[in-house]
């Protein structure tokens, strides 16, 4: 998909010079430079906590820089608020959408800047403007649909249209692909192309290298608050980008021993169950995982994988079927019974299920084992033991900042929160490890880390079930890939034979192969 | 600079600030009512710290409040809002009263038995609400409030039962037997400014605070209850039975409030009178817990503060100031503690801007 560049090297729209932003003694941005041209897609690449968001918040008027200058379209400015940024033509689409759920697409887009007819909102005129905008940028949306009824990808279009409606010609997209399906991602990249063709500039904050290669002209790399480099994307490959971002070489493919599958650990037969609305979502699912293999469960969100994992970990009751661990029945067992029989999991929602954010890191690390003789006796917690256990794992799993055992888990960055969960689940040393979107929102360095540990579990002859919406992740790690569609397994391929298009088809309920 | 920042970030600073603001707002109201704030506050201060006897009174007033404060603080730590400490206090008091009147035992057995019955009554009162929440999903705040009224009317009914009611006199029960009293022996009372009601209550309250602190911080039970309180989902995921944890938390919380009722009865009132309105020990416990930031040890001090204010307030009539001024001051303090995070952000962002 060769990109057509629309960059106009003669017109600078944003020039940020020597930006420094300090929070107390902490330097979040240390002399960062950024130049964005008209019609350019400029990616900002950096690990979690590298200072990307801080820089963009400075540009969007949410933070005042400690020092440094900003020029917008050749004029030196001091951006005092998001409202001011919008006046200057800068618009931001946040990672977490800010839409009014029961309102229609049109109502959301014009909110706060409604065309008026006397005292009334002229909804007809509003609708006309929305349709015009969406046609102009080839963003199909239903102007009359309610936000709560449309997909995440559609909601993102609404956010982009909202920014365009306000007259922005510089768009900041913060992690725009974090919750999109592969199909939606390629549509977004197309939309970005239409925007730049019209002379808009796009700043893309991301840590996904593939998307940078596909969408961006230029890439500025930030590491630990410092400016590293600005490169022409066509002249670098993903490996080079990754090592600039992390500051060392990064392995994309984890080394795997040849597959030596052992006994069946997890056996699921004809599992049926409902989702939270009471709708039949699992319609007779069959799956098995053996020792020493990673089985990847691929599928588009909403096909039953979430409920499936909740049933396996005891958080949801199924209607019928069989679930066995080493032949032992754990159908509809309690979470504790599931854990005791050898199932551990890295949950999809790490802040909801994975961690007690108000607990210290040390306390979180004993969540399933606080009552065992290792960490307590006669009902009294062994604080020394708990802390030394935490220090050991923090060191081993490189959780940062080091020495964080007594800090609340909520104060850690997302990547480090995930490391805490992984440290806990892996040291549980269970028979079956279920990992659900284990690298969601993590940067390349952290992803490598997670992948290495999943493969290590497999190499230690444990069973691993990897549930992920990231097809790349499934393909690079799995020994066998099972595709879930509409509540049952719609296809199965060996990991080494997997083909992205074929998997995509199966995920959409297409071909079925034995 | 770092030290200063540490203070500006800490809770204690905002609590003290809120207390100052509370007095300031109280002063304005007194002024508007035509009463000299200086005189009124002088009276308040004098009323509490004027002599040893009065200081001891502040401790006596504080004891039940520390218990209800602990009860609410414990519930906050475990993710439920015990607005029903009022009712648990009443049933606890009633249970202690019945045992104190009807059972004849030597003090060494009688006192513990009265207290145990109070704890049990409060725990049951809390658990029933817990059961409704766990089994039927009924919001605990609603049932707690209704249970407060049930306790209130039940107590008024019980007071008039022939077996408890004082013959010939007033709308109250008989006095509890001397063997159930926790008032200090004469020797100690003489030493404490001859305060006729000086009792063991405060010592028990302080011990209970330490025990609750220990349970919350140091035991597996506390770990379990806090996990459920902070994040029910993660707790369940970790294999903790959250229904059972909620029930346990409500029972302990209720037991504490019940014990508060027993202490008030056995050390101070000696009988239960028919209520004309809710006595509000439970609601004042919410204030105590909030000022303490839900810290059990903190409840000892905030309970003492409230106790002193409450006792000092009774002296305000000497300068024709309404004792309700105390309630206004306490309300203002709570309001400012509740919005203290806003103040903190304001102060810190201003500091950050300069840096």
Topology:
The complex is a heterodimer of chains A (514) and B (355).
Chain A (H helix, E strand, L loop, with lengths): L7 E16 L2 E13 L2 E5 L6 H8 L7 E6 L2 E3 L4 H6 L2 E4 L11 H6 L5 E2 L2 E2 L1 H14 L15 H14 L4 E5 L7 H16 L3 E6 L2 H7 L2 E6 L2 E7 L5 H9 L17 E11 L5 E11 L3 E5 L6 H8 L7 E6 L2 E2 L5 H6 L2 E4 L3 H5 L6 H4 L11 E2 L2 E2 L1 H14 L17 H14 L4 E5 L7 H16 L3 E6 L2 H7 L2 E6 L2 E7 L5 H8 L7
Helix pairs in contact in A: 14-15
Chain B lengths: L1 H8 L1 H22 L4 H13 L2 H26 L7 H18 L4 H30 L3 H20 L26 H6 L9 H18 L1 H11 L1 H6 L4 H28 L11 H11 L4 H18 L10 H15 L1 H15 L1
Helix pairs in contact in B: 2-3, 2-15, 3-14, 4-9, 4-12, 4-13, 4-14, 5-6, 5-7, 5-12, 5-13, 6-7, 6-12, 9-10, 9-14, 10-12, 13-14, 14-15
Describe the structure.
- The complex is a heterodimer of chains A (514) and B (355).
- Chain A is of the alpha/beta class and 514 residues long.
- Chain A has 3 domains: 8-246, P-loop containing nucleotide triphosphate hydrolases (Rossmann fold, 3-Layer(aba) Sandwich), CATH 3.40.50.300; 262-342 and 430-508, Rossmann fold (3-Layer(aba) Sandwich), CATH 3.40.50; 356-429, no CATH class.
- Chain A contains 17 helices and 24 strands.
- In chain A, the strands form 6 sheets. Chain A has a 6-stranded mixed sheet with strand order 6-9-10-3-11-12, with helices on both faces.
- In chain A, a hairpin with a 2-residue loop joins strand 16 (320-325) and strand 17 (328-329).
- The mean pLDDT of chain A is 88.
- In chain B, helix 3 packs across helix 14 (296-313).
- The radius of gyration of chain B is 21 Å and the shape is globular.
- The N and C termini of chain B lie close together (10 Å).
How would you spell out the order of helices and strands of chain B?
HHHHHHHHHHHHHHHH
CATH class of the largest domain in chain A: Alpha Beta
Sum up the overall morphology of chain B in one term: globular
Tell me about the largest β-sheet of chain B.
none
Structural domain count of chain A: 3
Number of strands of chain A: 24
Tell me roughly what share of residues is in helical segments of chain B.
over 70%
Biggest interface, residues from each chain? A-B, 30 and 23 residues
Helix-and-strand structural type of chain A: alpha/beta
| Approximate helicity band of chain A | 25-40%
How far apart are the first and last residues' alpha carbons of chain B, in Å?
Answer: 10 Å
Unreliable spans of chain B are: none
For this structure, the quaternary state is: heterodimer
The CATH architecture classification of the largest domain in chain B is Orthogonal Bundle
Q: Largest beta sheet of chain A, briefly?
A: 6 strands, mixed
Strand content of chain B: under 5%
Question: Averaging pLDDT over every residue of chain B, what do you get?
Answer: 89
Contiguous helical run count of chain A: 17
Unreliable spans of chain A are none
Number of helices of chain B: 16
Tell me the structural class of chain B: mainly alpha
